[in-house]
Design brief:
CATH topology of the largest domain: Rossmann fold
Number of helices: 33
Radius of gyration: 39 Å
CATH class of the largest domain: Alpha Beta
Helix content: 40-55%
Strand order of the largest sheet: 11-16-10-17-18-9-19
Shape: elongated
Number of strands: 28
Structural class: alpha/beta
Largest sheet: 7 strands, parallel
């Protein structure tokens, strides 16, 4: 820590007792290093006092700071009392006030008069109004903006007055108050102040420093470098060059220090990385190049705080870590669940009767849970998925989730205050569960926030709605972070850029060195235009860029090894463009820079098909399978042998998923079940016209019964695409019934013999000793003019029902998946021929396609060969499945049919 060492030695030379000094720093991070340096120098006296400059300004102003939620509530109370038009409710107020408050603080800190800026903004809008005919519409954007600044000229002065009456102050007001007291403070204070490592000051901070210098009660140590200080084009030295012109620095008091470290030899590497997370995967390789394996002089600087978890994942081999940056609260699971809870409450205000399952599932998944709660949640999800319940009634929610310990949080809140109390109690409850430290901190942050909001709300009379509470919580989530504790004097340091101030490292690894991250660029959240900010000397993005430039160059000026990584991929807000600071050192510095291009280092996707050998256990399962072989098993094997292995050998099944839109499979089931209900009533009868006409009238009833069979709720089909699917299903059933009606009307004799005919133990011999047994269901068996018809319903169109088997293709004819429909019908024909009740009848097999319902039954036809030839091919397919030397090999589909 070269800079801090120089300061300590300078102060010890001035006075071996440092207790009289007040050391003022940009942040508290360097204090621990100063103490270490004093210990290394065997210092045994009292320590100096340490202040941040904000703490010193607060001390001078002697005001009670107010910010965040308490400031918003107080400000809204003042706003309401003024009866301005438009008179926004609290939710609307919170949409603009936090941004305005930051602008107001800027006015108070950097301009001579906040009221002058407010008047200027109003006058500016009035001038624009003269130039444009705005008409009488108060909702015109220009008119609304004019009204806004007119209101702010009334509201902000009134707010300032009310805050002053309470002796409260915002950050900007503290600066304004301190400004008037600085001269007296500098004159009368007994302290000796040492300002260390500052770059940019607010006008009040500058006045304080210069006043103390004038009274010879202060001294300044800057950390500049000739590289960027001497060059007017270098934005990093902008503020320091200005400070050197202060009259307080003269022949008797030198400007300290301007070093010449940046030009010293450095190993600088720039990594162009394909992907954000991929940057973190390179860290272990960089660590290998660092000689000191304790990493005590190494810093990883994350310009994107969201990379912290991924960075920690790859640092498992690093013995000691010290994290000096916060992790955003908004990225944690409990935070997401809280957001979802408030969103659910808003939805319950709109929908009084039911819950949308997508509003409930994320809450149940992300909230910490006990073993008892987990059991209730699993049963609830299983029921909802099995019955495909998209909208869950309140009654059903109570039945399925009533035992959940926090079920009351999922019910519509009686009031905001009662809901806050419930959330506080819930946070206390889950802190007793076995949860990790980060989640514990996450929950504790929220418990504290809920308490603050509850306590801050109590003095105010205005109503807080649930959506307003949601905005308050979201503002809290977005601004808070979890701080980590570690050992700052040992091991690898992980930090943000601002945490590096005053510190020096031999090795610096910086991630996300992208434009928009370093510097942030023109992304200020403000209502004050750029030209007006410049006019009143308020900071703009240009000043912010200079501040970031200084932090960047100052960090690397004393460094020996610099690793700069940037994400080269464009996605979301990331442009994939490296920071202009990298381009500057590439073009302007004398250093040789090594460039590396890193492609995504993830393993390539394995494209080799899965292959599973037929072990003894698999062969045992196949022997068991031979006892119950269905046509669908064989078609499954044809489509993909691995599917057959998973379902028939491992006995696995696909998990239920909730369908918001009816799937092709369930559309087919809906038609299928409806037809089953229709013809079950007509089974065993020779059909008359009246039977079919009555069935057509009752289709709606049969469809409702089929919906019950599917375990779907009737309201699932009440609107949207599902309403259309149901209407199409009805049309298909109607077409099939009308087709049969026309047959009867034409004098044909049609008799329904069986529906969903179950068959089993129908033997099929592979050789004299080896056999399998067919089982399954035939959708419909009827008799048309004396001919037995075996009918299979299909959702898909009919394909390849003309069979052409000869000696050449006999063995492998059914080894192709596009002939699976004919394969199924051949097995059905073989089965029916072997059922005693159908012996001696002429048999026809066919498919009735729902996609072409008006065509009727399309029959299987043998152009070449016969049923015996077909069954020889089926036998060949079964023998392949049973053959121990033929493995199950995945069929990779390049496209879907």
């Amino acid at each position: 820590m070269k800079f801090l060492n120089k300061i300590v030695h300078e102060l010890l030379d001035q006075n071996p007792d440092l207790s009289a000094f007040n050391i003022v720093l940009p942040g508290k991070r360097p204090i621990v290093f100063i103490r270490q340096i004093l210990e290394e120098n065997n210092y045994s006296g009292f320590l100096p006092n340490f202040f941040t400059i904000e703490e010193l300004i607060d001390k001078i102003a002697d005001k009670q700071p107010i910010n965040g939620i308490s400031l918003w509530l107080f400000s809204y109370d003042v706003y309401k009392s003024l009866n301005l038009i438009p008179n926004d409710d609290f939710a609307e107020f919170l949409k603009w006030f936090p941004t305005l408050q930051k602008d107001w603080d800027d006015m108070l800190k950097f301009s001579d008069s906040d009221e002058a800026v407010l008047r200027y903004m109003f006058d500016e809008e009035r001038i624009k109004e003269w130039a444009q005919d705005l008409g009488e519409d108060d909702n015109a954007p220009r008119k609304k903006f004019l009204n806004f600044w007119q209101n702010m000229n009334i509201f902000l002065p009134a707010l300032k007055k009310k805050l002053q009456e309470k002796n409260w102050a915002t950050s900007g007001m503290i600066h304004e108050t301190a400004k008037a007291k600085i001269d007296d403070y500098a004159k009368n204070t007994e302290g000796k102040f040492v300002f260390c490592g500052f770059n940019a000051f607010t006008p009040v901070e500058e006045k304080l420093v210069r006043s103390l210098l004038q009274w010879d009660k202060g001294q300044c140590f800057f950390q500049a470098d000739h590289y960027y200080f001497d060059d007017e084009r270098q934005e990093a030295g902008k503020f320091l060059r200005n400070h050197k012109t202060w009259k307080e620095f003269d022949d008797h008091r030198a400007f300290q220090w301007i070093e010449d470290d940046f030009k010293q030899p450095k190993n600088i590497k720039v990594y162009e990385v394909s992907g954000n997370i991929t940057q973190t995967k390179i860290l272990p390789e960089i660590f290998k190049t660092i000689e000191n394996k304790t990493f005590s002089n190494t810093a990883v600087v994350l310009l994107d705080e969201n990379l912290l978890p991924a960075s920690l994942d790859v640092m498992y081999s690093v013995p000691n870590l010290n994290i000096t940056m916060g992790f955003p609260l908004k990225n944690l699971s409990f935070s997401n669940a809280v957001k979802q809870l408030f969103y659910l409450q808003k939805q319950l205000e709109k929908n009084k009767t039911s819950y949308y399952y997508r509003d409930v599932f994320p809450i149940l998944e992300e909230l910490p849970k006990s073993a008892e709660d987990e059991l209730v949640i699993n049963q609830f999800k299983a029921q909802v998925e099995e019955r495909n319940i998209v909208y869950i009634s309140k009654k059903l929610m109570q039945e399925l989730l009533g035992e959940l310990s926090y079920y009351h949080l999922l019910q519509k809140a009686e009031s905001v205050n009662i809901y806050l109390e419930s959330l506080i109690a819930f946070c206390k409850q889950i802190k007793w569960l076995e949860i990790d430290d980060i989640q514990y901190e996450n929950v504790s942050h929220f418990e504290n926030a809920f308490r603050i909001i509850r306590n801050q709300l109590s003095p105010y009379q205005f109503e807080i709605k649930m959506d307003t509470l949601e905005i308050l919580i979201n503002q809290h989530i977005n601004s808070e972070s979890i701080d980590f504790q570690g050992e700052p004097l040992r091991g690898l340091q992980i930090m943000g850029l601002l945490e590096t101030r005053l510190l020096n490292f031999e090795n610096v690894i910086m991630l996300s060195v992208n434009e928009g991250k370093l510097p942030l660029g023109n992304s200020q959240n403000t209502y004050i235009p750029f030209d007006i900010r410049r006019f009143f000397d308020l900071h703009t993005f240009l000043e912010n860029d200079s501040i970031y430039a200084y932090h960047f160059y100052r960090l690397i000026q004393d460094t020996k090894n610099v690793h700069l990584l940037f994400n080269a991929l464009s996605s979301g807000v990331n442009t994939g463009e490296k920071s202009r600071f990298i381009t500057q050192i590439e073009m302007e510095s004398s250093h040789q820079i090594e460039h590396l291009i890193i492609e995504n280092s993830s393993e390539p996707i394995i494209t080799q098909p899965i292959e599973i050998s037929k072990t003894n256990i698999v062969l045992e399962r196949l022997e068991k399978w031979k006892e119950k072989v269905s046509a669908s098993h064989l078609t499954s094997y044809l489509y993909n042998p691995i599917d057959f292995y998973l379902s028939k050998i491992l006995n696995t099944s696909e998990s239920d998923e909730i369908e918001e839109e009816l799937s092709v499979k369930n559309y087919g089931n809906l038609v299928h079940y409806t037809l089953q209900e229709v013809y079950e009533v007509l089974k065993g009868k020779i059909l008359k016209e009246s039977d079919l006409k009555n069935s057509i009238k009752e289709i709606d009833h049969y469809i409702e019964t089929a919906i019950g069979k599917l375990k779907h709720q009737p309201e699932f089909y009440e609107k949207g695409m599902n309403f259309i699917h149901k209407a199409i299903a009805k049309k298909v059933v109607e077409s099939i019934l009308n087709y049969d009606l026309e047959l009867v009307k034409s004098g044909n004799k049609l008799e329904i013999l069986d529906i969903e005919k179950r068959f089993e133990n129908v033997d099929f011999y592979l050789d004299e000793k080896n056999k399998i047994s067919f089982f399954g269901f035939i959708d419909r068996i009827d008799k048309l003019n004396g001919t037995l018809r075996i009918i299979d319903y299909k959702t898909a169109k009919i394909k390849n029902l003309i069979v052409k088997i000869d000696e050449e293709n006999r063995e492998d004819y059914f080894h192709k998946s596009d002939r699976k429909q004919a394969l199924q019908l051949c097995i059905y024909q073989y089965v029916v021929q072997n059922l005693p009740e159908f012996w001696g009848l002429p048999i026809e097999t066919g498919i009735w396609s729902f996609a072409e319902a008006k065509k009727g039954v399309v029959s299987l036809q043998f152009e070449k060969g016969n049923i015996d030839d077909a069954m020889a091919s089926v036998k060949s397919l079964i023998e392949e499945i049973l053959n121990p030397d033929i493995n199950f090999i995945e069929e990779i589909k390049t496209y879907s049919n």
